[in-house]
């Protein structure tokens, strides 16, 4: 298939720049795969689509304030902290990259300095710290790693605090993500309580959202695209609940494409295998889903691997029709936007 098959037109005004005042206020489009029916609802109605003994899977990866501004010889550089490599080393993306050279000293704050240890492709660098645990310092001075389509013209402290709070799920537990599992942003503690009260099992897994989730596709044919690696963890208790549900044909609803990727990667030898793993799984039309029966997801960028995944789940023609309807109805798109439930 061609990457161009996954393109669509979106008015810029429909790209959500801020979250709604209340998480559960988001619109929710319901897609019925068997009938082709599209229903318009709100996320506050989501619990009604879960029954007793259904399984709901959440990704508990926690977004770190990974966007940090440093100075090299007095010139400001933007750094996106990607991954801790150990021994004080971090992999980062920097902008403008051409001004960041091997051996440069970077000053982030009075007690927060590093040196450029190696040069990588496409703006990647490895930086070396000499002072202790860096994560608490990121939390002190960093900004939420918002995608570039969410515009922030200044380092406004109120916007920083709002983004750090709202670009995070209420059930986030494990530091490690550099992008939010955005389908989870709609949940509130009360919504989770309502789901539990209906008798559905809420299962928590982790996939640390990394570059793979939002890396651009630079090939013409999707089959030639290579995914980057992401790490996931599924506990023995989570795998037991999921495997029991699959054995008994009870539906499993995945919250977000990252949950799908972890579950489908861990499904081996007819069941979910517990433990830690790494995945380069690329899901696109033609893929046969093994673990996931239903999917809650946001609206995704044109030509993205996430749009390809949901097209594999619901069918490309159905997704195109749903997106056209979402544009007509002025749904809010992308990370801070509305969602769809595919059943």
Give an overview in words:
By secondary structure, this protein is of the alpha/beta class. It folds into two domains: 3-63 and 168-342, 3-Layer(aba) Sandwich (QueA-like); 67-142, Thrombin, subunit H (Beta Barrel), CATH 2.40.10. 22% of the residues lie in helices and 29% in strands. The chain has helices spanning 135-141, 157-166, 189-197, 211-214, 236-247, 257-266, 305-314, 316-328, and strands at 27-31, 38-42, 55-59, 61-63, 67-72, 75-86, 89-95, 105-109, 112-119, 124-129, 174-177, 201-207, 230-234, 252-255, 267-268, 271-272, 275-279, 294-298, 339-342. It has a nine-stranded mixed beta sheet. A six-stranded antiparallel beta sheet has the order 5-6-7-10-9-8, with helices on one face. Strands 4-11 form a two-stranded parallel ribbon. The chain is globular. The model has no long low-confidence stretch (mean pLDDT 96).
Tell me the strand percentage band. 25-35%
What summary fits the major beta sheet? 9 strands, mixed
CATH uppermost class of the largest domain:
Alpha Beta
Give the H and E element order. EEEEEEEEEEHHEHEHEHEHEEEEHHE
Strand segment count: 19
Shape assignment: globular
Strand order of the largest sheet: 2-1-19-18-14-3-12-13-17
Helix share bin: 10-25%
Low-confidence stretches: none
- Give the CATH superfamily of the largest domain: QueA-like
Ends apart, CA distance between termini: 25 Å
Which value, in Å, is the CA radius of gyration?
A: 20 Å
Helix/strand structural class:
alpha/beta
Our count of domains comes out at 2
The CATH architecture of the largest domain is: 3-Layer(aba) Sandwich
**Mean pLDDT over the full residue set:** 96
Q: In oligomeric terms, what are we looking at?
A: single chain
CATH fold annotation of the largest domain: QueA-like
């Amino acid at each position: 298939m061609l990457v161009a098959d996954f393109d669509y037109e979106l008015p810029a005004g429909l790209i959500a720049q801020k979250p709604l005042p209340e998480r559960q206020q988001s619109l929710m489009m319901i897609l019925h795969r068997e009938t082709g029916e599209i229903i318009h609802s709100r996320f506050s109605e989501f619990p009604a689509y879960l029954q007793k003994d259904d399984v709901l899977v959440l990704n508990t990866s926690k977004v770190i304030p990974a966007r940090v501004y440093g100075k090299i010889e007095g010139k400001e550089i933007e750094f996106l902290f990607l991954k801790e490599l150990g021994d004080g080393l971090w992999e980062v993306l920097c902008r403008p990259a051409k001004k960041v050279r091997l051996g440069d000293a970077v000053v982030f704050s009075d007690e927060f300095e590093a040196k450029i240890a190696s040069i990588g492709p496409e703006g990647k660098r490895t930086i070396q710290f000499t002072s202790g645990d860096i994560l608490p310092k990121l939390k002190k001075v960093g900004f939420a790693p918002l995608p570039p389509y969410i515009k922030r013209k200044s380092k406004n402290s109120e916007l920083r605090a709002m983004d750090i709070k709202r670009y995070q799920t209420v059930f986030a537990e494990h530091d490690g993500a550099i992008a939010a599992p955005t389908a989870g942003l709609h949940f509130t503690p009360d919504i989770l309580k309502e789901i539990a009260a209906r008798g559905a099992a809420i299962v928590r897994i982790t996939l640390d959202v990394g570059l793979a989730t939002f890396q651009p596709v630079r090939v013409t044919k999707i089959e030639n695209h290579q995914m980057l690696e992401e790490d996931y963890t599924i506990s023995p208790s989570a795998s037991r609940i999921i495997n029991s549900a699959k054995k008994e044909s009870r539906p499993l609803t995945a919250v977000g494409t990252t949950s799908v990727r972890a579950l489908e990667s861990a499904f081996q030898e007819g069941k979910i295998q517990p433990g830690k793993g790494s995945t380069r799984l690329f899901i696109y039309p033609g893929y046969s889903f093994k673990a996931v029966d239903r999917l809650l997801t946001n609206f995704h960028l044109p030509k993205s691997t996430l749009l390809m995944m949901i097209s594999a789940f619901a069918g490309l023609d159905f997704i195109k029709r749903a997106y056209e309807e979402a544009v007509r109805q002025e749904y809010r798109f992308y990370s801070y936007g509305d969602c769809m439930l595919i059943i």
